Amino acid sequence: MAFHRLRSPANHPRNYKMTHYGWSTCPVPIRTQVKTLSERLQNMLGIELVSIFLHGSLAMGCFNPERSDLDLLIITAQGLSVTAKRAIMELLLQLSNAPRPIEISFLVLPNIHPFRHPLPFDLHYSEDWRKKTSEELADGSWRDWNKHERYDYDLAAHITITRRRGLILYGKPAIEVLPTVPGEDYARAIIGDYWDARDSREQYPVYFVLNACRVYAYLKGGHIFSKDEGGSYGLDALPATFSGLIQHALEDYRGEGQARPYAAPELATFASFMDQHVHS
């Protein structure tokens, strides 16, 4: 479950300048969607719920209402029953994409202390899982959800970002609940995502370019950046030959300017440069 790819906005007028938002300034439908999810989970989980955290672009002030997903981490006191998981998944199928996609992971407090890489997760949902989840709810295979423990290499990155820049929506603060992630494990997680994004760079060029910039920023200076911040850093820190490509990606991410294609050779040259600085 890598950092989710940027989704192409439907019917988006590309000459319209998109404003980015944080949690305190986001449009009412976004706030309502997140608050509804938080309140419903509080009601469903009761005393088993420890914390609800918001991370990602909405927490870091660069949420694009035409592109961005909503990223959340849920911490529970113990593992969820399969019936509780079924109810939660039905809720997520209802609330995700109304209006924005939700990516959410449920972690069990005793299972994330002490930290190990990769960490186990109790439940996960993103729009990439919609079809599979719907099929399992329909054919009864949801009853097997608790038979195997599952792990996610990206949790090292999600937890690091949540501890540094996440927002608490309910419960205990991140510093009390989430483990400290060793820097080398965070680096391993984001480097792994770099290579995944590299392989799909022509399909998701905006994600590849901006994510590569933020990976570079961490490896060179220890910065924990959003994609937008990573791109801005790249304009200053990377060779000027890549400025046009990075600016292109930033404009697309921000919803500025006119849509225009990315040149495969330019992406390949950028990837070759980054390969020299990103080591697995």
Offer a few descriptive terms.
about 280 residues, alpha+beta, Beta Polymerase, domain 2, 2 domains, 5-stranded mixed sheet, two-stranded antiparallel ribbon, 11 helices, about 45% helix, about 10% strand, globular, nucleotidyltransferase activity, Polymerase_NTP_transf_dom, AadA_C, NT_sf
Description:
The chain has 280 residues and is α+β, with helices and mostly antiparallel strands. The protein has 2 domains: 28-181, 2-Layer Sandwich (Beta Polymerase, domain 2), CATH 3.30.460; 184-275, no CATH class. It is 46% helix and 12% strand. The chain has helices at 28-45, 57-60, 82-95, 130-139, 155-165, 174-177, 183-199, 205-221, 227-237, 243-254, 264-275, and strands at residues 49-55, 70-76, 102-108, 119-121, 123-125, 150-152, 167-171. The strands form 2 sheets. Strands 5-3-2-1-7 form a 5-stranded mixed sheet, sandwiched between helices. It has a two-stranded antiparallel ribbon with strand order 4-6. Helix 1 packs antiparallel against helix 3 (82-95). The two termini are 18 Å apart. Mean pLDDT is 93; it is low at 2-18.
